[in-house]
Amino acid sequence: MRDEGRKIMKSWRRSRPFWGGLLIVAAGLEVLSIPLAVSALPVAVMFGTVGASHLIALVMVIAGVLVWLQPGQRVFLGLIAVLLSMASFIYSNLGGFLIGMILGLLGGVLAMAWTPDNLPANRLDTVTVTVTVTVRSVLAAARTFASRMSAPRWAAAVSLGRHRRRLMSKRRSCAGTDTRAVEAGPAKVREPAG
């Protein structure tokens, strides 16, 4: 019975950015705990940032819980957590003495970077293909290609290559002229009527 519960919990954790959400919630709770300390409350009230730090901390906790509940929104929620962590540096006693800010930054980045395990098998980013090209494989491919080409085909391919090279050299020499005239061949010169 316990093993089934562990398997269910493990599959639930793997199907969402669990650790990113946990760090975001921990950061929010840590930032919230600093203004609630009895000895720090008069100092925080004197500076007037209690409302902003409470708001930042509560939104961070909500963002962390939403990362767990809606993994499809992980990039947006992670970005919100990163921005709130940076804002907590200013509004909440140096981001909860830097601990809350660092936890929030790490959690937000982990939430944004998380990808689901069950990607389709036909996606290109999941397939890794290693191609090794050796001299032997290139020579074997050339021999196979040459054996499939008969002599008349080789002659046609060579003459086509020569014809193409002649056209390309004409095009280069007539760089300022119309290319359609070069493709059509030499133009006939008309004599002026007169």
SSE map:
Blueprint lengths: L1 H13 L3 H19 L4 H7 L2 H20 L4 H18 L1 H5 L1 H15 L21 H14 L2 H23 L5 H6 L10
Helix pairs in contact: 2-4, 2-5, 2-7, 4-5, 5-7
Structure description:
There is one protein chain. It is built from 10 helices and no strands. The mean pLDDT is 77. The protein has 2 domains: 10-115; 145-184, no CATH class. 72% of the residues lie in helices and 0% in strands. It is elongated. It starts with a helix and ends in a 10-residue tail after the last helix. With 194 residues, it is an all-alpha fold.
Summed over residues and divided by their number, the pLDDT gives a mean of: 77
Proportion of residues in β-strands: under 5%
Domain module tally? 2
Q: Oligomeric state of the chains?
A: single chain
Count of runs of 4 or more consecutive helical residues: 10
Largest sheet: none
Uncertain runs: none
Please trace the helix and strand order, writing H or E for each element.
HHHHHHHHHH
Q: How many whole angstroms does the radius of gyration measure?
A: 35 Å
Total number of beta strands? 0
Structural class: mainly alpha
Indicate the percent of residues in helices.
over 70%
Distance between the termini: 109 Å
Inertia-based shape: elongated
Gist of the model:
The chain has 194 residues and is mainly alpha-helical. The chain has ten helices and no strands.
